[in-house]
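Try this one yourself first.
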């Protein structure tokens, strides 16, 4: 096989040796570089963190925010390392001081212009398979949250809007007020770019271009810029 075509696989032992100035995730042994979060992304993350941290004060569960390594299959191949935007861990034995080994009780990912497919498809499947009990996908541009709960090894969920209060399934009695989370977070320039990107994607799909080819096209465009 041509070396250029051969896909090299890595594990957590390799991952910890890489340049820590560049954030990576490791998906089935394949490294994926991560873009820096936007101001909007950070604002949403901070507001969610504050509500969760206030609720968990004095309780056994803890909330963490990125960058923090989660090794979803640490007990086997140890070739999946993700850095969720927010995560909750209630089992102290899963901590090794530097990472979480195994599935957190809850994960929250915040969408950005570059990671929509990654969070809604790739990570959705990973979190479901690894047993993350609750997974939220936060959409800052449409001010909505897709909240999923794991039942019979499959996610079931619903969409909440910016005036809703979401019960946290894994934390009895905890509720997140989305009005507070999304208050004063509208950024017209970012929304406009997202709308343009979505129109391009829809145009590609109409002529038969698949999602993988679309992602490749956007990547090549970004590299060119």
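Now uncover the answer:
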């Amino acid at each position: 096989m041509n070396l250029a075509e051969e896909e090299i696989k890595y594990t957590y032992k390799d991952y910890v040796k890489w340049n820590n100035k560049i954030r990576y995730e490791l998906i089935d042994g394949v490294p994926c570089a991560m873009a820096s979060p936007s101001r909007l992304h950070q604002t949403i993350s901070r507001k969610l963190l504050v509500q969760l941290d206030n609720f968990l004060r004095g309780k056994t569960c803890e909330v963490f925010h990125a960058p923090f390594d989660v090794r979803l299959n640490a007990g086997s191949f140890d070739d999946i390392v993700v850095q969720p935007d927010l995560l909750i861990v209630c089992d102290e034995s899963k901590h090794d001081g530097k990472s979480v080994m195994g599935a957190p009780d809850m994960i929250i990912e915040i969408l950005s212009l570059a990671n929509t497919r990654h969070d809604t498809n790739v990570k959705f499947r990973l979190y479901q398979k690894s047993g993350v009990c609750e997974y939220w996908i936060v959409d800052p541009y449409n001010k909505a949250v897709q909240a999923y709960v794991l039942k019979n090894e499959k996610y079931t969920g619903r969409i909440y809007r910016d005036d809703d209060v979401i019960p946290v399934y894994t934390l009895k009695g905890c509720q997140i007020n989305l009005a507070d989370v999304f208050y004063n977070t509208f950024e017209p320039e970012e929304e406009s770019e997202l709308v343009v990107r979505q129109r391009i994607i829809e145009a590609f799909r109409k002529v038969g271009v698949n999602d993988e080819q679309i992602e490749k096209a956007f990547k090549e465009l970004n590299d060119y810029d």
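Discussion: The chain has six helices and 13 strands. Helices lie at 12-15, 39-56, 116-130, 178-181, 188-206, 211-224.
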